Amino acid sequence: MQNNKTDGEEGEGGPNIQGDGVPKETSPFINSNVEKRQHYDGKNMALFEEEMDTSPMVSSLLSSLANYSNLPTGSKEHEEAENNEETPRATKQPVKAPQLGTLMGVYLPCIQNIFGVILFLRMTWMVGIGGVLGSFIIVFMCCSTTMLTAISMSAIATNGVVPAGGSYYMISRSLGPEFGGAVGICFYLGTTFAGAMYILGCIEILLIYIVPQAAIFKLEGLEGAEAEIALLNNMRVYGTIVLSFMALVVFVGVKYVNKLALVFLACVILSILAVYAGVINTIIEPPLFPVCLLGNRTLLSKSYDICAKVIEIDNETITTKLWLSFCDSDALNATCDEYFTNNNVTEIQGIPGVTSGILSENLFSNYLEKGMMLEKKDILSEQDPDSPTTNSGRYVLADITSFFTLLVGIYFPSVTGIMAGSNRSGDLKDAQKSIPIGTIAAITTTSTVYMSCVVLFGACIEGIVLRDKFGEGVNGNLVIGTLAWPSPWVIVFGSFFSTCGAGLQSLTGAPRLLQAIARDGIIPFLRVFGHGKANGEPTWALLLTASICEIGILIASLDSVAPILSMFFLMCYMFVNLACALQTLLRTPNWRPRFKFYHWALSFLGMSLCLSLMFMCSWYYAIVAMGIATCIYKYIEFCGAEKEWGDGIRGISLSAARFALMRLEEGPPHTKNWRPQLLVLMSLDSEQNVEQPRLLSLTNQLKAGKGLTIVGTSVQGTFLDNYIEAQRADQALRKLMETERVKGFSQVVVSSSLRDGTSHLVQVGGLGGLKHNTVMVSWPHNWKQPQYNQQFRNFIEVVRETTISSLALLVPKNISSYPSNGERFTEGHIDVWWIVHDGGMLMLLPFLLRQHKVWRKCKIRIFTVAQMDDNSIQMKKDLITFLYHLRIDAMVEVVEMLDSDISAYTYEKTLVMEQRSQILKQMQLTKTEMEREIQSITDSSRGSIRRKSTAAFRSQRSTDEPSTVAEEESAAAPNRKNSKNTSTPTSPTSLSSLAGGTGTWTDGKTLESSPSTVTEGGKDHFSMKPEWEHLNQTDVRRMHTALKLNEVISKKSKEAKLILLNMPGPPRNRTNRTNPMDNAVYKDYPFFTDIQVMIFLGFGCLLSFFRMYGFGGIVFNFLTATFTIQWAILVQGYFQFRHNGQIHLGVINLINAEFACAVVLISFGAVLGKTSPLQLLIMSLLEVPIFGATEWVVLKYLRINDAGGSILIHLFACYFGLGVTFVLYRPQLNNGHAKENTSYHSDVLSVMGTLFLWVFWPSFNSALTIKGDDQHRAILHTFIGLSASTLTAFALSFLLNKNGKLSMADVQNVTLAGGVTVGASVDMMISPVAAYALGMAGATACMLGYKYLSPFLAQNFRIQDQCGIHNLHGLTGLISCTAGICAILWASEEVYGPSLYEIFTHRAPVEDDPKLSELQQLVPGLAPGLGRTAREQALFQAAAVGLTIGVSAIGGVITGFVLKLPGLAAPSDELCFDDELFFDVPYDYDAPVNKTTTTEDLAA
User: Fold this and answer.
1) Residue 180 · residue 589 · CB < 8 Å
2) What is the CA radius of gyration of the chain?
3) Spatial contact of 1374 and 1250, defined as CB atoms under 8 Å apart
4) Which residues lie across from 298 on neighbouring strands?
5) Contact (Cβ atoms closer than 8 angstroms) between residue 845 and residue 979
6) CA-CA distance, 884 to 238, in Å (whole number)?
7) Buried/exposed 395-427: b ≥16 CB within 10 Å, e otherwise
8) What percent of the chain has pLDDT over 70?
9) CB 469, CB 94: distance < 8 Å
């Protein structure tokens, strides 16, 4: 492996790049130190001596690598720097090795940071409001989030060294500087607002529970909003004082904060132990904390001295202070508050203890609106609901409106602080071991404490006390303090000092985090905060931190500040999880964490929880936090310093690019998304300089940085010899692209010839689906000169290659005259000559150009050409309408091309081109000789034309040049562009001559020449008449059109700034003819006609067996079939035959539509005679889309074999029809109907239908099979199956008929069963015996079904199957599917040979399988399959059967309910099976016959 780093490469960008102020994670041997180099001198093995500077001998580095460490510049170093300020700076202090273990370095700091103010001030209130269950859910969610985050953090922290900065470094080095900076700032803001929250908690404890007399704004006598404002103002004043003091302490020296850390930790631990001791004490002796209630309302402690209205003293009733609070005097007859009068005063125990059973009352939530009174639910009170509430100031009131998400936002800060261990990674003895163990152990401990506290608080404390946030009902005590043992003051002072310590820790950590971000240099405007005191103390960062913290102080409400910092911490944790998940999924080579108990799914779960909690806490805070992060991200992206940290975003960019490229491979882009993706072919001179730089100017003006742009060129030679030249050419292209501001890629190809190199670029440019669709190449320079002939021939080859590749071609002429990017056109026109329809590309080009400032003020003019027979006025209207729909503002003009006489010049030019081709063929010259002759002929013909041309054509082209309008030199319009369209000219009046030379297309060879037969310039034109008579008049007409059009363009667009015109490409087919026998009509139309006979004659006659319903059977079949076929063409066209937004029609479409029609007609048989024509049409309208969707799903996703349609046609039609008839059940018809009988003539007509179906059924089964052996087998198997079922039907009819005679119903139906039973396996090698057996089995099942199953279904399952379709199509279809599955399981290469993979296409090997290549040699054209086994294909067949039956049955039931809607002219029971309801019938249509047959002897 080569090491390509140079000596100057140091860390992340060299020694001069401003870093983060910490030692870089660089290896010891990548160093340019002179002493190090001397250390390795003479120790190499002289293999590659020039690499010893960067790759020294491995054995010499082992000791350095083993002792390599990376100590952060953290708080410990600042403290040591302060202690050693007197030490001379020249003396270098030895670096002490880190000594902290898991307990002191990770576990206890995390414990101290996690336990905080929320536990002491809000946990009891949260349990009271949210209930034990709700609070437990909140605690569990938050703790689970931090646990999952800790797992992700442990993986990241153990994947290398985490320097000072903790989570910021983890995210930035994993997700890149943009995400790192954004999340780093969020983490910084969260830590800063955490300091504000701790300070507010400290002040709340001080002013409410310790020294309430210290309040500057007195609360006595104030109620409601006034008291709330006074409290907030006190918080603001004292908070600002405490913040200033803490900031001063941090500024003076961080060593004082570090020395007090142990004291603060002890306070936290002692406070928690006091709570648990108090819980245990409640079991032994519950503490006495009475709560006074009036009715069920909690009274303020300050509103009473004794919890009673009156007391007895010396047999005298005396009123209490409580009486005076609710009455107007102390007299017993005073007027009192109505609620006070009607309710008694009771005193309950505030802390009944664990054994009291109070837990059941506190299980569920009790959310309150702001101002609501705290009430005990299980105590009744008398209150008039209409009377207003008075004296509310005497009760304990809810200070805020509470709800579940509010509790989540307030509680979440109590689980933050899990990063404390990772922030100290540099001080740990073994960080990769201590961080995971310590952090997870700390979270486990704190989570256990939190969850146990939720249960214990609910089990020990009365609900109204829990909901009393500030302890106003328990003499102003801290509620959690009332539970503590031995005294509430343990909790009060413990929580006070712990909040002070937490605030100091936040003010210590936040500035250092900001300093680390600033020193990284990724956010330029923060660089000033990277400076500090001489010892590195972040003075400016501390000042900014204190200022931001003051914002939180001014908010003053702990409940309002908590959700803010929750947002920032959750965002930080979310990105820690994201970083771990991305690194795991991307499997980057350097992702090797020592912590193994992680998984990407856990990280994504943690990330999802963080995002969910953000919006649960406060959706608007979440949006603001994400907006701040987004702004910082964008700022870093556009203005920040470029850093390459090997982050995961680059990896995800590569993965996303690969995914996007794979998606692009799935199909062509939609028309709305189409834009030119350019391959710009450049030419270089001998010095590897670009010859036509304006080509890139035009590219920039056309693309404006959107889409794909590839700038390519070729270098002649071999790659080994010309590698340096290729590099130089690439640099020249890149430099010019940068100058012209072209966003794209450069590509240089080294090839033996420039022609081949250009061809390679056209073929292999791009990657995957991101390929060019348009080639831009400049018009050949000086192409008329003989020495540039090869250049022109190369250009012609580019035209041919773009044509064969179906690429558009843009050819700007006179490219040097095009404007540069700095020029501006203040006026002018862009003229568009719309000669050939190209799908709209020509309209798109001027629109794209006018997006650029160069062309913005130019107006668009569009010209189109009208021939003699065209209506020019209508053409102009249509074009204006077209432009209106395209939303393009342009002027429109229609140019009329009159059919004038053809000039002699036109004949002469055409003649020269014809003779050139013919004589070269006759001469049979070599390639070199032919090229020489071409040139001489060109010169001769040019001279002749020049002598005979008029003044208007004095600069005509040589015959080697494609006759395009873009080739005409015009001083008035020097800028030309030519966009190619690949359509083939088909008419003499088409402008095909504008694309590739007129006469060259007639003989099938492009740009070939023949000797000129032109004589002197004075030769009379009419003397050439005999030669002209032999010319192809189509070619003459094309040449004439080209010349006339050229003249019109020169005249109309003389003043245009730019002329755009499109031309057809050269013909792909040299003769422009096709083999008629290749047309599908000759292959498929015979099958189509056979199926037509089956649909209209076979089904129509078969359904006319009822004596009085013959018209209905035939005519309604005719009507339904005609409608269904048209409707099926549209539906199936949408699902299967739609390309580029259009449905392509052909004979195959009609055959498929006939199959869909057969489905409807089979279903029609189930309801024959019981429905109106309107119902039948509605049934067809609904059944065809359901069938089309089912067919599309089965064929596209299940990929089954069903040549005869047993699954998709017969089973679907059967169970759809049964579903319809199930809903349309008529109980009166169960015992037969008077008109449900046949006659002699109706049976004869029905048998005629059977014969039509029988004769043409082989065409039905084989129509869509593979032409050849498969179709041959299908025809044979169908005929054999039908023959077997016919013989079996006759035999069984004799046997099962009571009188031993044939039944016409059996002849009409059972004889057809064999055609269905062989359907699923009709094209497989099942042998004639198997086909015969299937025919017999189908006939037997069908016969027994008619005799026994149909009556059973009608009597017991409400299925009146009028024609017995379940017997002829359902049972036989199931037999056919079973046979098909067996045939698939038994199919093998030993039997089928390579053709196995033609019949079972999905069993063919997948793409890139070596076996596929072998099979394609045996079976040319074999397409890749899915690589299924026989078992897998059989399972898919079975799945298709189940899906088809289920969908069809459900669809039939739904359709049946639709058909039952009123207004659809359904016949009554009496008029069923009668033509008279819908037809004008003959007078004798119902004349009696001698003998009729009842329904017991027939199947419908």
Assistant:
1) no
2) 46
3) no
4) 293
5) yes
6) 69
7) bbbbbbebeeebbbbbbbbbbbbbbbbbbbbbb
8) 78
9) no
Determine how many CB atoms are found less than 10 A away from the CB of residue 965.
25
The residues with which 809 forms a beta bridge, in sequence order, are 775
Element (H, E) at 810: strand 808-813
Is 287 exposed, middle or buried (CB count within 10 Å of its CB: 0-12, 13-18, 19+)?
Answer: middle
| Backbone phi, psi, residue 361, to 5° | -75, -25
Q: Which helix (H) or strand (E) holds 1162?
A: helix 1147-1166
Residue 31 is predicted with a pLDDT of 39
pLDDT of 179 strictly over 60: yes
Q: Is residue 948 within 8 Å of residue 1017, measured between CB atoms? A: yes
CA dihedral 541, 542, 543, 548 (to 10 degrees): 90
Strands 345-349, 859-866: pairing kind = unpaired
Run of H or E including 188: helix 177-204
* Residue of 1196, 1217, 949 whose CA lies nearest to 1103: 1217
Query: Which three-class secondary structure state does DSSP give residue 977?
Result: strand
Q: Show the tokens assigned to 257.
A: 């904060």
Dihedrals phi, psi of 894, to nearest 5 degrees: -105, 125
Burial class (CB in 10 A: 0-12, 13-18, 19+), 437: middle
Q: Kind and range of the H or E element at 348?
A: strand 345-349
Helix (H, G, I), strand (E, B) or coil at 978: strand
Give the list of residues 6+ apart from residue 754 with CB closer than 8 angstroms, or none. 714, 716, 794
Task: Output the DSSP codes for 1044-1110.
Answer: HHHHHHHHHTTT-SEEEEEEEPPPSSSS----GGGSHHHHHHHHHHHHHHIIIIIHHHHTT-BTT-H
- What are φ and ψ of residue 1397, in 5° steps? -85, -5
For 910, residues 6+ apart whose C-beta sits below 8 A from its C-beta are 998, 999, 1031, 1035, 1036, 1039
Chain centre to alpha carbon of residue 256: 54
Give the pLDDT confidence score for residue 1375 in this predicted structure.
Answer: 93
Cα torsion 24, 25, 31, 32 to 10°: value is: -20
Q: Which amino acid is at 753?
A: S
Both structure tokens of 1296:
């099962």
Query: Is the bond preceding residue 693 a cis peptide, omega within 30 degrees?
Result: no
Q: Please state the rounded mean pLDDT for residues 149-170.
A: 74
| C-alpha to C-alpha distance for 1293 and 110, rounded to whole angstroms | 91
Cα(478)–Cα(471) distance, integer angstroms = 6
User: Around Cβ 1027, how many Cβ atoms within 10 Å?
Assistant: 14
> What percentage of the chain exceeds 90 in pLDDT?
20
447, 139 contact by CB (below 8 A): yes
Q: How far apart are CA 1445 and CA 1369, in angstroms?
A: 12
- Strands 745-751 and 1138-1139: what pairing? unpaired
Q: How many angstroms separate the Cα of 1312 from the Cα of each of 1102, 1164, 1315, 1326, 1344?
A: 11, 18, 6, 20, 15
Q: In the Cβ-directed half-sphere of 1109, how many Cα atoms lie within 13 Å? A: 29
CA gap 987, 999 in Å, rounded: 14
- Select from 1072, 1066, 1071 the least CA-distant residue to 983: 1066
Residue with tokens 């806490």: 617
At 280, which helix (H) or strand (E)?
helix 254-284
SS percent in the chain: helix, strand, coil, step 5:
60, 5, 35
Confidence of residue 392 (pLDDT cuts 50, 70, 90): confident
- Count of residues making up the chain: 1500
More confident residue, 1081 or 1072: 1081
Structure tokens at 728: 């130089």
